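Hi all, a correction to my earlier message: I attached the wrong file for Phosphotriesterase. Here's the right sequence:
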Amino acid sequence: MSTVHTVFGPLAPWLVRRGPALPHEHLVLDLGRPQDRHAVLDAGPDTTAVTRELASLREEFGLSLVVELTCRGMGRDPAALARISRASGVPVVAATGWYHEAFHPPEVASGDVEELTGILVREIEDGIGPTGIRPGVVGEAGTSGERPTEPERRALLAAAAAARATGLSVVTHARLGRGGQAQLDLLTGAGLPPHRVCLGHQDLLDDTAAHRRLAAAGAYVAFDTVGKEHYRPDADRLRLLLALLDAGHADRILLSCDVSRRAYLQAAGGHGYGHLLRDFLPRARAAGVDEDLVDLMTRRNVLRFLTGSECDEER
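and the right structure:
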């Protein structure tokens, strides 16, 4: 098994022996727009609250890793991620790539696939700007509908090419869970193996057949908006999760909360990063999900996805 690349360098997966990981979160971001000025986690005033939450989850549940998917054009701040990681004691993986078209920086409109691939590869190999912090995943590479727009298509193709060149995996943003099959077809058509693809926000799509098709194709299916009840009740998420487990696809499921604005923080009265661990998983256990399956979905699958391993072997 190869290493997981965190903001402080390589982390051997066998060191993450116990305790869950959160594979789709944001610790610092800025998606604020005139119609929604509150989609922000500020590197200044919010950092203390984020750090306290992660430290508390490390103490209570043994939180072992956070994959932070704020990428280019989303207010990414790798230096702030390093500060949060150091202060909380929780390893953090940084990301590169492009979100969906509404948040693309000008480089996407002006760049072809080769140019965009070069941008990502340079960050992965040399680090993000002057920080030298190297991303450990490509994502969240976004589309905004059933089919990618032309700029989204180029950004996804660049994500696939950069992942192939550097050995990383790709996490997608599928708005409201739609378009996952089109994303997978595009990425695998560009030569990226399906087990290096995680299709985001599938818990927002009430379509068990679609989930089964994606998992059967070998991709990871993310139920990563746990706790966002205004999008879909957690009761629906649990029903969809149990259906995918019953279909035999436990080894292709990732679970997370996608905290993406200040209002979701516990300090602001929100469900916080720990909702999956404190609330959702106990309901899953009550529905018959055993501890080995919980560990598979919340730890081993995350490590397998990030490293490209197809087995659960550990040192």
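Sorry for the mix-up. The domain at 4-307 is CATH 3.20.20.140 (TIM Barrel).
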